[in-house]
UniProtKB/TrEMBL annotation:
Xref: PANTHER family: HYDROXYPYRUVATE ISOMERASE, INOSOSE DEHYDRATASE
Recorded catalytic activity of this chain's protein: scyllo-inosose = 3D-3,5/4-trihydroxycyclohexane-1,2-dione + H2O
Signal peptide: none
Protein name: Inosose dehydratase
The family this protein is said to belong to: Belongs to the IolE/MocC family.
GO molecular function: manganese ion binding; myo-inosose-2 dehydratase activity
Top-rank taxon: Bacteria
Gene giving rise to this polypeptide: iolE
SUPFAM superfamilies for this protein: Xylose isomerase-like (SSF51658)
Coiled coil: none
InterPro entries associated with the record: IolE (IPR023952), IolE/MocC (IPR030823), IolE/XylAMocC-like (IPR050312), Xyl_isomerase-like_sf (IPR036237), Xyl_isomerase-like_TIM-brl (IPR013022)
């Protein structure tokens, strides 16, 4: 059983408003989003583009709702741009999260990524890195990890559909070629399931590197459509590929059991990018919270 003292439950704002698809949830305010997060029973969140960028202002909204900032996404371009450009943006991001009390920084390499390209099939055009790009990525991530350590923080790498780190073998290589003291891993079963990969194998093999968890479910009928129609990642999201735990194909009981076995300590973040016009975000937040409570007692 998961230890309630070790686990914090949060939810991402991407179910209310989508940063990559701003037309989704355009009408939903920041205040509605965070109020419904708290009402659904979550104590933390990640950050979206509608969130205030001033830490003092953001604290004033979140504190009274009992919400903490768990982390926020950072796009690195270590394989395609000079390192210094990524470093400068990272330091601003790090310092903002530090001011919000976060302990982890979600990093995903977006060099060569197709996840934001609306007309490119997500199943057919996955990017890969050559040897030089792998070296740029691993050395760059270690540098970012050292910068995070300056603030007693850590980076957690987010494997993601449509990027150069998507498969089990790519995750394995990334972990093997980076310093475990500098580069940690974010575990996201939804992205691994979408990619056709063994998510439990990743969880078990890299238990000592996992310091952040995204809880994301997948609708099989939409996955079949994505493959048949060769949809892009963004079109897959609009079609409803992702949903909250308890509403899709993934059985989360073995995942929670493995997290308990490895004595996981940290945030578990419900993250399900959906069209809020089709999937009411408050309703689905409640579905997720109830499902997690029934499985874990948390």
């Amino acid at each position: 059983m998961l230890d309630k003292e070790n686990i914090k439950l949060g939810i991402a704002p991407i179910g209310w408003t989508n940063d990559d698809l701003p037309e989704l949830g355009r009408e939903i305010t920041f205040e509605q989003c965070i109020s419904e997060m708290a009402l659904a029973g979550f104590t933390g969140c990640e950050i979206g583009n509608k969130f205030p960028k001033d830490p003092a202002i953001l604290h004033s909204y979140l504190d009274i709702r009992g919400l903490q900032v768990a982390s926020a996404w950072f796009s690195s371009y270590l394989t395609t741009a000079p390192y210094k450009e990524t470093e400068q943006a990272f330091l601003v991001h790090r310092d903002f999260l530090y001011a919000m009390g976060a302990k982890v920084i979600v990093v995903s390499e977006q060099g060569k990524s197709i996840q934001g390209q609306p007309d490119v099939s997500i199943m057919q055009n996955k990017p890969t890195f050559n040897q030089q790009e792998w070296e740029l990525l691993t050395t760059g991530l270690e540098k970012l990890g050292a910068l995070a350590q300056q603030k007693d923080m850590r980076i957690v790498y987010h494997h993601h559909m449509g990027t150069g780190i998507q498969t089990v073998s790519e995750i394995d290589r990334l972990m093997a070629e980076t310093d475990k003291g500098l580069v940690s891993l974010l575990f996201d079963c939804g992205h691994l399931y979408f990619a056709g990969e063994d998510y439990l194998a990743v969880l078990k093999k890299h238990a000592n590197r996992i310091h952040h968890v995204h809880l994301k479910d997948v609708r099989d009928e939409v996955l079949t459509l994505v493959k048949h129609e060769q949809l892009s990642f963004l079109d897959a999201v609009k079609a409803g590929i992702y949903t909250v735990p308890g509403d899709g194909q993934i059985d989360f009981e073995p995942i929670f059991k493995e997290l308990a076995t490895m004595n996981y300590k940290g945030w578990c973040i419900v993250e399900a990018e959906q069209d809020p016009a089709k999937a009411n975000p408050f309703k689905y937040a409640k579905i997720a919270r109830s499902y997690i409570a029934n499985l874990t007692g948390i």
